[in-house]
Amino acid sequence: MPDQLDLQQLGINLVKAAYLEGDFLLSSGQRSRYYLDKYRFSTDPLLLKPIALGLAGLLPAGLNCLAGVELGAVPLVTAVSLETGLPFVIVRKGAKDYGTAKLIEGVLPVHARIGLIEDVLTTAAQAIRAAQLLTELGATIERIVYVVDREQGADANIRAAGFDPAALFTKTSLGI
After folding, report:
1. Which residues contact 128 (CB under 8 A, 6 or more apart)?
2. Is residue 23 within a helix (H) or strand (E), and if so which, with residue range?
3. Each residue of 106-154: pLDDT tens digit?
4. Element (H, E) at 41
5. Confidence of residue 20 (pLDDT cuts 50, 70, 90)
6. Distance between CA atoms of 84 and 114, rounded to whole angstroms?
């Protein structure tokens, strides 16, 4: 991690801004007593900038493109793009039925070597689907980096799908 990033303080600030308690249904279909509202950290420039710096530090060398899944990862991949100077594509969850009807928005380079950016992962199903789609289109996914691992299978599922995961924070490291 770069020296100018205080990861411990960033984790404290992230929890303070985004941690909610209650009864929540997650995109994985699981229920949870807590929720990390990604929009509370991805729309705040005082949190987004250091998160982007941290995610950029998890990316391997040799990438020529980034990718993010709509909608939640778009601010994150945009910020990491600005931090690294790498272009990015957006992976849609489904093709539009108008316009270009693309699943990938932006320009996917030939022989793309991609860092896939995600937000808060439980099982990583959407991240894995996006990585598989990009792979089918000829890209190589060098690493899937994400802000928080809820420690409910995401890391193991990403590895089982043949990809390399790296989380900026885990549920444990955030103390939740």
Report:
1. 157, 158, 161, 163
2. strand 19-25
3. 999 999 999 999 999 999 999 999 999 999 999 999 999 999 999 999 9
4. helix 38-42
5. very high
6. 13
CA of residue 129 relative to chain centroid, distance: 13
Cβ atoms of 91 and 174 closer than 8 Å: no
Alpha carbon 143 to its chain centroid, in Å, reads 10
Residue that the structure tokens 């990938």 belong to = 104
Tokens of 117: 């950016």
C-alpha–C-alpha distance, residues 41 and 99, integer Å:
31
Gap between the Cα atoms of 49 and 161, Å rounded: 30
Q: How far is CA 132 from CA 41, 47, 161, in A?
A: 27, 30, 9
Helix (H, G, I), strand (E, B) or coil at 105: strand
